[in-house]
Design goal:
With 215 residues, the protein is mainly α. The protein folds into two domains: 48 residues, Arc Repressor Mutant, subunit A (Orthogonal Bundle); 142 residues, Tetracycline Repressor, domain 2 (Orthogonal Bundle). 65% of the residues lie in helices and 0% in strands. It is built from ten helices and no strands. It starts with 8 loop residues before the first helix and ends in a 13-residue tail after the last helix.
Length: 215
């Protein structure tokens, strides 16, 4: 039987996240409002504000629901871990929610830095913190001499991808770029491990995408 009306309480969170993703893709972040979200989600403002203080708090939840926060990555090698980080970042930075929303979101954060706090605390922060875990495992395996600066490695991996998305006219993100970022990170860390797996990132298929591993 098909039902209509507002979603049950158990599905309101999912409806809000889905509505937010659709609206960012359709309209961009700058035009996103609580009213538009609740209308698309089929809920109401009290239900929204029981879960979120504002639109900025929804965004990290949307991204986490679509892309996770990377804390499950453990391939058994440093190169493999960083390759997987970059595969996921490629999916993140080519997601229409990001490509359509990043300009408006950056403008809002510049005007009011507090709007960026939920994103850094609940999405970017855990991803960056896990870089240290990856590097500590690599030290234990003897692949690198020391952990070094995990924040710099995270920046080294993410910065080039962010530039490709944030600046109009930049080339698209491709496997060759991902491979160069991983090589740069491994060089910076003094990695002596096997890098042959990076060849998979250089292989571009007929649609201009690198082949992904089966999940």
């Amino acid at each position: 039987m098909v039902t209509s009306g507002r979603p049950r309480k158990s599905s309101i969170d999912d409806a809000i996240l889905q509505a937010t993703a659709e609206l960012i893709t359709d309209l961009g972040y700058a035009r996103l409002t609580v009213t538009a979200i609740i209308e698309r989600a089929g809920t109401n403002k009290p239900a929204f504000y029981r879960r979120f203080q504002n639109v900025a708090e929804v965004v990290p939840r949307v991204l986490a629901s679509r892309h996770g926060v990377d804390t499950d990555i453990d391939t058994g090698s440093l190169a493999g871990d960083l390759i997987e980080v970059q595969r996921r970042q490629e999916r993140l930075f080519t997601d229409p929610v990001v490509t359509r929303g990043i300009a408006g979101w950056l403008a809002e954060v510049e005007a009011d830095p507090e709007q960026g706090r939920p994103f850094f605390e609940h999405y970017l922060g855990p991803r960056r913190a896990y870089t240290r875990v990856i590097l500590e495992r690599a030290v234990a395996r003897g692949e690198i001499p020391q952990v070094g600066d995990p924040a710099w490695i995270a920046d080294l991996l993410t910065g080039p991808l962010l530039m490709r998305v944030a600046f109009p006219g930049m080339p698209r993100i491709d496997g060759a770029l991902l491979a160069r970022t991983v090589h740069s990170a491994l060089d910076s860390l003094g990695c002596v491990g096997d890098r042959r797996a990076l060849s998979s990132l250089d292989s571009i298929d007929e649609e201009g995408r690198y082949p992904r591993r089966a999940r």
